[in-house]
Amino acid sequence: NLPYKWHLNERGYSPLEFSVVEQELQRAFLAWQTLPDSNVTFEYQGITQQSGGGVGSQLAASIDGVNVISFVNNEINFPETVLAVCNTSVFEAEITITESNYDLNGDGEGDIPVGLYPAGSIFNADIFFDGAKSFSQESLHNTALHEIGHCIGLQHSSIEHSVMYPFADHDLARGAIIKNDDSSTLASYMEAPQVE
Description:
The protein contains 4 helices and 7 strands, in the order E-H-E-E-E-E-E-E-H-H-H.
């Protein structure tokens, strides 16, 4: 597996120091990466001017191989109760990725491992926070933890207080911990057949 490489929009989230935003996002990614049954890895690539949309690639106009986290995306109208969204791109049909189409952003490096992908495979995931909403350091971390779960393929859970429960846990300390429901669901995904 290639790592999920992510960039933070250069404007950050103005109520918090930029370094605090970076730290809380990195901490949330690390929580998923260090689970015992996890084989996902994440790499912070630094800042970007991109806030969403992307510049496109040979696969589609909106797919560029750059996973962005942004608080300034103007393309999304957030409902009042939504703090953030993970916008994923999936293969609509089975596709073979080769060295001729694995470089999505034109930097000369493969963004997707070569292989055969079934329909529904996630290959691009951006996280957009509603920058008009108020986030403390803790709530930013917890919201990121939930959205990263979506980026790696997890859906909402019906188990109250799990990270993937669709409503934020008002107990910030409890909300910062990945629960058994979350980790066992991820572990079941990790046991799925690997890309050939």
